[in-house]
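Continuing from the previous page of notes. For each protein in this section, the sequence appears first, followed by its C-alpha coordinates. Read the first protein now.
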Amino acid sequence: MTAGRLLFRGALFMVAALALSACSMFRGDDSGGSRADDNAGRGGGVTLGGGGSSSSGGGGGGDAGIGVNSFLWRASLDTLNFMPLASADPFGGVIITDWYSDPTTPSERFKATVYILDTRLRADALNVSIFRQQQANGAWVDATVDPDTEVQIENAILTRARQLRLSTVGN
Protein backbone atom coordinates (compact mmCIF):
# COMPACT_ATOMS: atom_id res chain seq x y z
CA MET A 1 0.00 0.00 0.00
CA THR A 2 1.38 3.39 -0.93
CA ALA A 3 1.90 6.23 1.51
CA GLY A 4 -0.61 8.42 -0.34
CA ARG A 5 -3.30 5.78 -0.11
CA LEU A 6 -2.58 5.21 3.58
CA LEU A 7 -2.72 8.96 4.21
CA PHE A 8 -6.05 9.17 2.32
CA ARG A 9 -7.58 6.35 4.40
CA GLY A 10 -6.36 7.95 7.63
CA ALA A 11 -7.81 11.32 6.63
CA LEU A 12 -11.10 9.66 5.62
CA PHE A 13 -11.27 7.91 8.99
CA MET A 14 -10.60 11.18 10.84
CA VAL A 15 -13.33 13.00 8.88
CA ALA A 16 -15.82 10.20 9.59
CA ALA A 17 -14.96 10.22 13.30
CA LEU A 18 -15.27 14.01 13.44
CA ALA A 19 -18.63 13.96 11.63
CA LEU A 20 -19.95 11.24 13.90
CA SER A 21 -18.91 13.02 17.08
CA ALA A 22 -20.43 16.29 15.85
CA CYS A 23 -23.89 14.76 15.53
CA SER A 24 -24.75 15.44 19.16
CA MET A 25 -22.64 18.54 19.55
CA PHE A 26 -25.20 21.22 18.65
CA ARG A 27 -28.54 20.62 20.38
CA GLY A 28 -29.67 24.20 20.81
CA ASP A 29 -30.01 25.64 24.30
CA ASP A 30 -28.39 23.17 26.66
CA SER A 31 -28.56 25.16 29.86
CA GLY A 32 -29.46 23.31 33.03
CA GLY A 33 -32.40 25.62 33.67
CA SER A 34 -34.21 24.74 30.45
CA ARG A 35 -33.76 21.01 31.02
CA ALA A 36 -35.12 21.37 34.55
CA ASP A 37 -38.12 23.32 33.24
CA ASP A 38 -38.78 20.64 30.61
CA ASN A 39 -38.62 17.88 33.21
CA ALA A 40 -40.87 19.76 35.62
CA GLY A 41 -43.43 20.32 32.87
CA ARG A 42 -43.49 16.64 32.03
CA GLY A 43 -44.26 15.57 35.59
CA GLY A 44 -43.02 12.39 37.19
CA GLY A 45 -39.95 12.50 39.32
CA VAL A 46 -39.86 11.97 43.04
CA THR A 47 -42.01 13.85 45.52
CA LEU A 48 -41.26 13.37 49.16
CA GLY A 49 -43.98 13.06 51.79
CA GLY A 50 -47.72 13.27 51.09
CA GLY A 51 -50.32 10.57 51.28
CA GLY A 52 -51.19 10.38 47.64
CA SER A 53 -53.34 12.42 45.38
CA SER A 54 -56.31 10.74 43.87
CA SER A 55 -56.40 10.53 40.13
CA SER A 56 -59.56 10.03 38.17
CA GLY A 57 -61.08 6.60 38.08
CA GLY A 58 -60.67 3.82 40.58
CA GLY A 59 -56.92 3.96 41.00
CA GLY A 60 -56.03 6.85 43.18
CA GLY A 61 -52.80 7.35 45.00
CA GLY A 62 -50.65 6.50 42.02
CA ASP A 63 -49.13 9.97 41.76
CA ALA A 64 -47.61 10.19 45.23
CA GLY A 65 -44.03 9.99 44.00
CA ILE A 66 -43.54 6.30 44.70
CA GLY A 67 -43.64 3.56 42.13
CA VAL A 68 -46.68 1.82 43.60
CA ASN A 69 -50.14 2.68 44.90
CA SER A 70 -49.61 4.83 47.99
CA PHE A 71 -52.79 3.57 49.68
CA LEU A 72 -51.69 -0.06 49.35
CA TRP A 73 -48.21 0.89 50.54
CA ARG A 74 -49.47 2.69 53.64
CA ALA A 75 -52.08 0.00 54.37
CA SER A 76 -49.41 -2.72 54.15
CA LEU A 77 -47.21 -0.89 56.63
CA ASP A 78 -50.18 -0.29 58.94
CA THR A 79 -51.31 -3.92 58.79
CA LEU A 80 -47.85 -5.37 59.45
CA ASN A 81 -46.80 -2.77 62.02
CA PHE A 82 -46.60 -5.39 64.80
CA MET A 83 -43.76 -7.15 62.93
CA PRO A 84 -40.25 -5.65 62.74
CA LEU A 85 -39.32 -4.41 59.27
CA ALA A 86 -36.24 -5.84 57.61
CA SER A 87 -36.59 -3.92 54.34
CA ALA A 88 -39.04 -1.54 52.70
CA ASP A 89 -38.64 -0.31 49.12
CA PRO A 90 -41.40 2.15 48.14
CA PHE A 91 -40.15 2.47 44.57
CA GLY A 92 -40.10 -1.27 43.93
CA GLY A 93 -43.13 -1.97 46.10
CA VAL A 94 -41.56 -4.60 48.35
CA ILE A 95 -41.95 -4.85 52.12
CA ILE A 96 -40.02 -7.57 53.95
CA THR A 97 -40.46 -8.10 57.66
CA ASP A 98 -38.03 -9.73 60.01
CA TRP A 99 -38.97 -12.85 61.91
CA TYR A 100 -41.68 -12.22 64.49
CA SER A 101 -42.49 -14.51 67.39
CA ASP A 102 -45.67 -13.99 69.39
CA PRO A 103 -44.86 -13.94 73.13
CA THR A 104 -47.58 -16.54 73.75
CA THR A 105 -45.95 -19.02 71.31
CA PRO A 106 -42.17 -18.49 71.50
CA SER A 107 -41.40 -21.74 69.63
CA GLU A 108 -43.07 -20.44 66.46
CA ARG A 109 -42.14 -17.44 64.32
CA PHE A 110 -43.43 -15.76 61.17
CA LYS A 111 -42.03 -13.60 58.40
CA ALA A 112 -43.99 -11.71 55.74
CA THR A 113 -43.19 -10.35 52.31
CA VAL A 114 -45.59 -7.99 50.57
CA TYR A 115 -45.33 -7.18 46.87
CA ILE A 116 -47.31 -4.23 45.52
CA LEU A 117 -47.45 -4.78 41.79
CA ASP A 118 -49.38 -1.81 40.40
CA THR A 119 -50.06 1.89 40.84
CA ARG A 120 -53.81 1.27 40.92
CA LEU A 121 -55.81 0.26 43.98
CA ARG A 122 -56.81 -3.23 42.90
CA ALA A 123 -56.91 -6.62 44.60
CA ASP A 124 -54.59 -8.16 42.01
CA ALA A 125 -52.00 -5.45 42.66
CA LEU A 126 -51.12 -7.09 45.97
CA ASN A 127 -49.27 -10.32 46.73
CA VAL A 128 -48.52 -11.48 50.27
CA SER A 129 -46.21 -14.36 51.20
CA ILE A 130 -46.04 -15.65 54.76
CA PHE A 131 -43.25 -17.88 56.03
CA ARG A 132 -43.45 -19.91 59.23
CA GLN A 133 -40.82 -21.71 61.27
CA GLN A 134 -41.05 -23.86 64.37
CA GLN A 135 -38.31 -24.55 66.85
CA ALA A 136 -37.35 -28.21 67.07
CA ASN A 137 -34.33 -29.39 69.08
CA GLY A 138 -32.96 -25.85 69.30
CA ALA A 139 -33.07 -25.21 65.54
CA TRP A 140 -35.65 -23.37 63.46
CA VAL A 141 -37.35 -25.62 60.92
CA ASP A 142 -39.59 -24.45 58.08
CA ALA A 143 -43.25 -25.30 58.58
CA THR A 144 -46.30 -25.04 56.36
CA VAL A 145 -48.50 -21.98 56.42
CA ASP A 146 -52.24 -22.17 56.05
CA PRO A 147 -52.95 -20.58 52.62
CA ASP A 148 -55.96 -18.87 54.18
CA THR A 149 -53.56 -16.84 56.36
CA GLU A 150 -52.08 -15.07 53.32
CA VAL A 151 -55.58 -14.35 51.98
CA GLN A 152 -56.67 -12.93 55.35
CA ILE A 153 -53.67 -10.60 55.48
CA GLU A 154 -54.26 -9.50 51.86
CA ASN A 155 -57.90 -8.76 52.72
CA ALA A 156 -56.87 -6.80 55.82
CA ILE A 157 -54.45 -4.71 53.72
CA LEU A 158 -57.08 -4.10 51.03
CA THR A 159 -59.68 -3.10 53.63
CA ARG A 160 -57.24 -0.63 55.21
CA ALA A 161 -56.30 0.75 51.77
CA ARG A 162 -59.98 1.36 50.99
CA GLN A 163 -60.37 3.15 54.33
CA LEU A 164 -57.37 5.36 53.57
CA ARG A 165 -58.66 6.18 50.09
CA LEU A 166 -62.15 7.01 51.36
CA SER A 167 -60.71 9.26 54.05
CA THR A 168 -58.80 11.30 51.43
CA VAL A 169 -61.72 11.44 48.98
CA GLY A 170 -63.98 12.83 51.72
CA ASN A 171 -61.55 15.69 52.46
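Done with the first. The second protein uses the same format. Note its length before scrolling.
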Amino acid sequence: MFLSLLLLFPQIELLPMRPKVVAFLLLLLLIFAGLVYRHHGLSLIRPEGGARLRLTGIRCVCHDRKCKAALHSMMDMRTDRVPRIRHILWKSDRVSAYFAKQLKSWTDIHPGWTYVLWRDADLDRFVAKHYTGALQKFRSLKENIMRVDMARYLILHHFGGVYADLDYTLVRSLDPFLKYTAVVPIETEAFALLYFGMSTWPPDLLGNPAFMFSLMANPATDVFTFAGPLGLSAMLKRYATDRPAVSDLSDVVFVPVSRAFSSYANNSLRSSTSEYKGGIMDALNRQCDAVRKSTVSPPELKSYCKDVYNLDPITDRRELAFAIHDSNKARSSYDKRGSPQFYKDSVSIRTVVPNVRMAREII
Protein backbone atom coordinates (compact mmCIF):
# COMPACT_ATOMS: atom_id res chain seq x y z
CA MET A 1 0.00 0.00 0.00
CA PHE A 2 1.04 3.62 0.25
CA LEU A 3 1.54 6.19 2.94
CA SER A 4 -0.03 9.43 3.91
CA LEU A 5 -0.95 11.37 6.94
CA LEU A 6 -3.54 13.88 5.82
CA LEU A 7 -4.44 16.59 8.33
CA LEU A 8 -6.92 19.19 7.23
CA PHE A 9 -5.75 22.26 9.09
CA PRO A 10 -2.25 23.56 8.35
CA GLN A 11 -1.38 25.89 11.20
CA ILE A 12 0.95 28.27 9.37
CA GLU A 13 0.36 30.09 6.09
CA LEU A 14 3.41 30.64 3.90
CA LEU A 15 1.52 32.56 1.24
CA PRO A 16 0.16 35.72 2.90
CA MET A 17 -1.68 36.82 -0.22
CA ARG A 18 -3.85 33.70 -0.22
CA PRO A 19 -6.81 32.90 2.07
CA LYS A 20 -6.22 30.30 4.72
CA VAL A 21 -6.65 26.76 3.53
CA VAL A 22 -7.80 23.69 5.34
CA ALA A 23 -6.21 20.93 3.31
CA PHE A 24 -3.03 19.70 1.75
CA LEU A 25 -2.02 17.49 -1.13
CA LEU A 26 0.34 14.71 -0.23
CA LEU A 27 2.55 13.40 -3.05
CA LEU A 28 4.71 11.11 -0.98
CA LEU A 29 4.90 8.94 -4.02
CA LEU A 30 6.09 5.80 -2.40
CA ILE A 31 3.93 2.71 -2.71
CA PHE A 32 0.69 1.22 -1.54
CA ALA A 33 2.24 -1.90 -0.08
CA GLY A 34 1.38 -4.69 -2.45
CA LEU A 35 -1.52 -2.87 -4.03
CA VAL A 36 -1.25 -4.74 -7.32
CA TYR A 37 -4.71 -3.84 -8.53
CA ARG A 38 -5.69 -2.02 -11.66
CA HIS A 39 -7.27 1.36 -10.98
CA HIS A 40 -9.59 3.12 -13.39
CA GLY A 41 -12.29 5.67 -12.76
CA LEU A 42 -13.64 3.91 -9.71
CA SER A 43 -15.24 6.88 -7.97
CA LEU A 44 -18.98 6.85 -8.29
CA ILE A 45 -21.11 9.57 -6.77
CA ARG A 46 -24.85 9.89 -6.54
CA PRO A 47 -26.06 13.46 -5.90
CA GLU A 48 -29.53 14.29 -4.64
CA GLY A 49 -30.97 13.95 -8.12
CA GLY A 50 -29.90 10.33 -8.24
CA ALA A 51 -27.74 10.62 -11.39
CA ARG A 52 -24.76 8.30 -11.37
CA LEU A 53 -21.56 10.16 -12.18
CA ARG A 54 -18.08 8.84 -12.85
CA LEU A 55 -14.98 10.69 -11.67
CA THR A 56 -12.38 9.37 -14.05
CA GLY A 57 -9.23 8.22 -12.33
CA ILE A 58 -10.40 9.38 -8.91
CA ARG A 59 -11.66 7.33 -6.02
CA CYS A 60 -13.69 8.85 -3.21
CA VAL A 61 -15.03 7.72 0.13
CA CYS A 62 -18.28 9.66 0.31
CA HIS A 63 -20.96 7.43 1.76
CA ASP A 64 -24.03 9.65 1.98
CA ARG A 65 -25.94 11.89 -0.39
CA LYS A 66 -24.90 15.14 1.25
CA CYS A 67 -21.22 14.39 0.80
CA LYS A 68 -21.65 13.07 -2.72
CA ALA A 69 -23.69 16.07 -3.79
CA ALA A 70 -21.05 18.40 -2.38
CA LEU A 71 -18.36 16.45 -4.21
CA HIS A 72 -20.25 16.77 -7.47
CA SER A 73 -20.61 20.53 -7.11
CA MET A 74 -16.94 20.79 -6.19
CA MET A 75 -15.82 19.45 -9.56
CA ASP A 76 -16.33 22.90 -11.09
CA MET A 77 -15.11 24.80 -8.06
CA ARG A 78 -12.29 27.26 -8.67
CA THR A 79 -11.28 27.70 -5.04
CA ASP A 80 -8.11 25.84 -4.11
CA ARG A 81 -7.94 23.96 -0.85
CA VAL A 82 -4.32 22.98 -1.30
CA PRO A 83 -1.67 25.63 -0.62
CA ARG A 84 0.76 26.04 -3.50
CA ILE A 85 3.80 25.01 -1.52
CA ARG A 86 6.27 22.25 -2.29
CA HIS A 87 8.37 20.99 0.60
CA ILE A 88 11.80 19.71 -0.48
CA LEU A 89 13.61 17.50 2.03
CA TRP A 90 17.29 16.96 1.35
CA LYS A 91 20.59 16.62 3.15
CA SER A 92 21.97 20.06 2.28
CA ASP A 93 21.40 23.08 0.05
CA ARG A 94 23.18 21.38 -2.85
CA VAL A 95 21.64 18.85 -5.21
CA SER A 96 23.09 16.76 -8.00
CA ALA A 97 22.62 17.72 -11.63
CA TYR A 98 20.31 14.71 -11.82
CA PHE A 99 17.97 16.08 -9.15
CA ALA A 100 18.37 19.66 -10.39
CA LYS A 101 16.90 18.67 -13.74
CA GLN A 102 13.87 17.14 -12.05
CA LEU A 103 13.40 20.12 -9.74
CA LYS A 104 13.47 22.42 -12.76
CA SER A 105 10.52 20.55 -14.23
CA TRP A 106 8.50 21.72 -11.21
CA THR A 107 9.55 25.37 -11.39
CA ASP A 108 8.95 25.43 -15.15
CA ILE A 109 5.34 24.33 -14.68
CA HIS A 110 4.68 26.05 -11.35
CA PRO A 111 6.97 29.12 -11.26
CA GLY A 112 4.74 30.97 -8.81
CA TRP A 113 4.70 28.32 -6.12
CA THR A 114 6.53 28.62 -2.82
CA TYR A 115 9.38 26.11 -2.52
CA VAL A 116 10.78 25.36 0.93
CA LEU A 117 14.05 23.49 1.48
CA TRP A 118 14.25 21.39 4.62
CA ARG A 119 17.76 20.22 5.41
CA ASP A 120 18.57 17.52 7.93
CA ALA A 121 19.63 20.14 10.45
CA ASP A 122 16.23 21.85 10.22
CA LEU A 123 14.16 18.81 11.09
CA ASP A 124 15.21 18.44 14.72
CA ARG A 125 14.64 22.15 15.36
CA PHE A 126 11.20 21.96 13.77
CA VAL A 127 10.08 18.95 15.80
CA ALA A 128 11.54 20.40 19.00
CA LYS A 129 9.62 23.64 18.55
CA HIS A 130 6.28 22.47 17.22
CA TYR A 131 5.95 18.81 18.27
CA THR A 132 7.68 18.52 21.63
CA GLY A 133 5.66 15.45 22.53
CA ALA A 134 7.14 13.60 19.55
CA LEU A 135 10.71 14.80 20.04
CA GLN A 136 11.91 11.86 22.13
CA LYS A 137 10.55 9.38 19.60
CA PHE A 138 12.04 11.40 16.74
CA ARG A 139 15.52 11.46 18.27
CA SER A 140 15.42 7.78 19.18
CA LEU A 141 15.03 6.58 15.59
CA LYS A 142 18.05 4.57 14.55
CA GLU A 143 18.27 5.70 10.92
CA ASN A 144 18.25 9.20 9.49
CA ILE A 145 15.80 8.27 6.75
CA MET A 146 13.29 7.24 9.43
CA ARG A 147 13.54 10.71 10.98
CA VAL A 148 13.04 12.23 7.53
CA ASP A 149 9.95 10.08 6.96
CA MET A 150 8.49 11.09 10.30
CA ALA A 151 9.29 14.78 9.85
CA ARG A 152 7.61 15.10 6.47
CA TYR A 153 4.27 14.06 7.92
CA LEU A 154 4.62 16.61 10.69
CA ILE A 155 5.65 19.31 8.21
CA LEU A 156 2.57 18.66 6.08
CA HIS A 157 0.40 18.62 9.18
CA HIS A 158 1.78 21.98 10.25
CA PHE A 159 2.02 23.85 6.96
CA GLY A 160 0.02 21.92 4.39
CA GLY A 161 1.26 21.82 0.80
CA VAL A 162 2.86 19.22 -1.44
CA TYR A 163 5.59 16.72 -0.76
CA ALA A 164 7.27 14.78 -3.57
CA ASP A 165 10.49 12.82 -3.65
CA LEU A 166 13.31 14.48 -5.58
CA ASP A 167 13.25 11.84 -8.31
CA TYR A 168 9.85 12.90 -9.63
CA THR A 169 9.65 14.85 -12.86
CA LEU A 170 6.53 16.97 -13.19
CA VAL A 171 5.05 16.80 -16.67
CA ARG A 172 1.67 18.49 -16.18
CA SER A 173 0.20 21.14 -13.90
CA LEU A 174 -1.18 19.96 -10.57
CA ASP A 175 -3.89 22.64 -10.62
CA PRO A 176 -6.71 20.13 -11.25
CA PHE A 177 -5.93 18.50 -7.90
CA LEU A 178 -5.66 21.62 -5.77
CA LYS A 179 -9.39 21.81 -5.13
CA TYR A 180 -9.44 18.48 -3.34
CA THR A 181 -8.97 18.01 0.36
CA ALA A 182 -6.26 15.40 -0.10
CA VAL A 183 -4.80 13.37 -2.95
CA VAL A 184 -2.77 10.22 -2.29
CA PRO A 185 -1.08 8.70 -5.35
CA ILE A 186 -0.04 5.06 -5.54
CA GLU A 187 3.03 3.44 -7.09
CA THR A 188 2.99 1.34 -10.20
CA GLU A 189 1.95 -2.28 -10.00
CA ALA A 190 5.48 -3.37 -10.87
CA PHE A 191 6.96 -1.50 -7.94
CA ALA A 192 4.37 -2.91 -5.57
CA LEU A 193 5.04 -6.42 -6.83
CA LEU A 194 8.77 -5.91 -6.45
CA TYR A 195 8.68 -5.01 -2.78
CA PHE A 196 5.65 -6.89 -1.55
CA GLY A 197 5.29 -9.85 -3.84
CA MET A 198 1.86 -11.37 -4.22
CA SER A 199 0.41 -9.91 -1.05
CA THR A 200 -2.38 -7.47 -1.76
CA TRP A 201 -4.22 -4.87 0.20
CA PRO A 202 -7.77 -4.64 -1.15
CA PRO A 203 -8.53 -1.26 -2.73
CA ASP A 204 -11.06 -0.47 -0.01
CA LEU A 205 -12.30 3.06 0.28
CA LEU A 206 -10.13 5.01 2.68
CA GLY A 207 -11.87 6.62 5.62
CA ASN A 208 -11.60 10.11 7.02
CA PRO A 209 -7.94 11.20 6.87
CA ALA A 210 -8.35 13.94 9.49
CA PHE A 211 -6.35 12.27 12.19
CA MET A 212 -2.96 12.77 13.82
CA PHE A 213 -0.40 10.21 12.78
CA SER A 214 0.31 8.10 15.86
CA LEU A 215 4.05 7.90 15.27
CA MET A 216 4.93 7.81 18.94
CA ALA A 217 2.89 4.63 19.42
CA ASN A 218 4.41 2.75 16.49
CA PRO A 219 6.82 0.10 17.80
CA ALA A 220 8.28 -0.72 14.37
CA THR A 221 12.03 -0.32 14.01
CA ASP A 222 12.68 -0.56 10.25
CA VAL A 223 12.23 2.02 7.53
CA PHE A 224 9.28 0.47 5.70
CA THR A 225 7.14 -0.43 8.71
CA PHE A 226 7.76 2.65 10.84
CA ALA A 227 6.94 5.73 8.77
CA GLY A 228 7.47 4.23 5.36
CA PRO A 229 4.81 2.67 3.14
CA LEU A 230 3.95 -0.29 5.34
CA GLY A 231 3.69 1.69 8.55
CA LEU A 232 1.42 4.40 7.24
CA SER A 233 -0.55 1.97 5.13
CA ALA A 234 -1.36 -0.11 8.18
CA MET A 235 -2.46 2.97 10.09
CA LEU A 236 -4.62 4.19 7.23
CA LYS A 237 -6.25 0.80 6.93
CA ARG A 238 -6.91 0.65 10.66
CA TYR A 239 -8.31 4.16 10.63
CA ALA A 240 -10.53 3.40 7.65
CA THR A 241 -11.86 0.36 9.51
CA ASP A 242 -12.64 2.43 12.58
CA ARG A 243 -14.25 5.25 10.57
CA PRO A 244 -15.74 3.59 7.47
CA ALA A 245 -18.07 6.42 6.44
CA VAL A 246 -17.89 10.17 6.14
CA SER A 247 -20.53 12.85 5.76
CA ASP A 248 -18.38 15.90 5.14
CA LEU A 249 -16.46 16.72 1.99
CA SER A 250 -13.40 17.72 4.01
CA ASP A 251 -13.19 14.11 5.18
CA VAL A 252 -12.58 12.69 1.70
CA VAL A 253 -9.29 11.41 0.32
CA PHE A 254 -8.74 10.80 -3.40
CA VAL A 255 -6.55 8.11 -4.92
CA PRO A 256 -5.59 8.66 -8.59
CA VAL A 257 -4.59 5.73 -10.77
CA SER A 258 -0.91 4.82 -10.62
CA ARG A 259 -0.46 6.06 -14.18
CA ALA A 260 -1.16 9.63 -13.04
CA PHE A 261 1.82 10.07 -10.74
CA SER A 262 4.05 7.02 -11.05
CA SER A 263 4.40 6.51 -14.77
CA TYR A 264 7.50 5.13 -16.40
CA ALA A 265 8.91 6.79 -19.47
CA ASN A 266 6.98 5.51 -22.48
CA ASN A 267 4.97 3.35 -20.08
CA SER A 268 7.67 0.70 -20.13
CA LEU A 269 10.45 -0.47 -17.86
CA ARG A 270 12.55 -0.88 -20.98
CA SER A 271 13.47 2.77 -20.59
CA SER A 272 15.48 1.92 -17.47
CA THR A 273 19.23 1.65 -17.22
CA SER A 274 21.14 -1.61 -17.28
CA GLU A 275 21.79 -1.15 -13.56
CA TYR A 276 18.06 -1.16 -12.91
CA LYS A 277 17.42 -4.09 -15.20
CA GLY A 278 20.29 -6.10 -13.77
CA GLY A 279 19.15 -5.79 -10.18
CA ILE A 280 15.54 -4.85 -9.73
CA MET A 281 14.31 -6.59 -12.85
CA ASP A 282 15.88 -9.82 -11.63
CA ALA A 283 13.91 -9.44 -8.41
CA LEU A 284 10.73 -8.75 -10.36
CA ASN A 285 11.25 -11.87 -12.41
CA ARG A 286 11.64 -13.92 -9.24
CA GLN A 287 8.37 -12.53 -7.91
CA CYS A 288 6.69 -13.30 -11.21
CA ASP A 289 7.85 -16.90 -11.00
CA ALA A 290 5.67 -17.24 -7.91
CA VAL A 291 2.78 -15.49 -9.67
CA ARG A 292 2.97 -17.84 -12.63
CA LYS A 293 2.91 -20.90 -10.37
CA SER A 294 0.09 -19.62 -8.21
CA THR A 295 -3.50 -20.70 -8.77
CA VAL A 296 -4.93 -17.66 -6.99
CA SER A 297 -2.98 -14.78 -8.52
CA PRO A 298 -5.14 -11.96 -9.95
CA PRO A 299 -5.47 -12.08 -13.76
CA GLU A 300 -3.86 -8.63 -14.00
CA LEU A 301 -0.72 -9.94 -12.33
CA LYS A 302 -0.55 -12.99 -14.54
CA SER A 303 -0.91 -10.77 -17.58
CA TYR A 304 1.84 -8.46 -16.39
CA CYS A 305 4.21 -11.31 -15.59
CA LYS A 306 4.14 -12.51 -19.17
CA ASP A 307 6.54 -9.63 -19.84
CA VAL A 308 7.74 -7.81 -16.74
CA TYR A 309 9.23 -5.00 -18.80
CA ASN A 310 5.84 -4.02 -20.15
CA LEU A 311 3.30 -2.20 -18.00
CA ASP A 312 0.63 -2.04 -20.69
CA PRO A 313 -1.50 -4.98 -19.52
CA ILE A 314 -2.33 -3.37 -16.18
CA THR A 315 -1.62 0.31 -16.63
CA ASP A 316 -4.23 2.39 -18.39
CA ARG A 317 -2.43 4.48 -20.99
CA ARG A 318 -5.53 6.59 -21.52
CA GLU A 319 -5.05 8.28 -18.16
CA LEU A 320 -3.02 11.48 -18.22
CA ALA A 321 0.35 11.39 -16.48
CA PHE A 322 1.12 14.28 -14.15
CA ALA A 323 4.49 13.16 -12.85
CA ILE A 324 6.99 10.46 -13.74
CA HIS A 325 8.84 8.51 -11.07
CA ASP A 326 12.30 7.93 -12.49
CA SER A 327 13.20 4.27 -12.70
CA ASN A 328 16.77 4.89 -13.87
CA LYS A 329 18.15 4.23 -10.44
CA ALA A 330 18.70 1.66 -7.76
CA ARG A 331 18.26 1.68 -4.00
CA SER A 332 17.90 4.65 -1.68
CA SER A 333 18.43 8.22 -2.87
CA TYR A 334 18.92 9.62 0.61
CA ASP A 335 21.69 7.81 2.45
CA LYS A 336 24.36 7.48 -0.25
CA ARG A 337 23.48 3.88 -1.01
CA GLY A 338 21.90 4.54 -4.36
CA SER A 339 22.96 5.31 -7.89
CA PRO A 340 25.97 7.59 -8.47
CA GLN A 341 23.91 10.26 -10.23
CA PHE A 342 22.28 11.13 -6.90
CA TYR A 343 25.42 13.01 -5.85
CA LYS A 344 27.32 13.77 -9.06
CA ASP A 345 27.95 17.35 -10.28
CA SER A 346 26.17 19.05 -7.41
CA VAL A 347 24.91 22.62 -7.69
CA SER A 348 23.31 25.06 -5.29
CA ILE A 349 19.59 24.57 -5.17
CA ARG A 350 19.22 28.32 -5.76
CA THR A 351 20.52 27.87 -9.29
CA VAL A 352 17.39 25.83 -9.98
CA VAL A 353 14.93 27.43 -7.57
CA PRO A 354 16.16 31.03 -7.16
CA ASN A 355 13.41 32.01 -4.74
CA VAL A 356 13.61 28.90 -2.57
CA ARG A 357 12.85 29.59 1.07
CA MET A 358 15.04 28.02 3.70
CA ALA A 359 13.11 26.17 6.35
CA ARG A 360 15.08 27.83 9.13
CA GLU A 361 13.38 31.10 8.16
CA ILE A 362 9.91 29.76 8.89
CA ILE A 363 10.50 27.40 11.79
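What the second structure shows: The chain has one domain: 43-361. The first strand starts at residue 43 and ends at 45. We return to this in next week's lecture.
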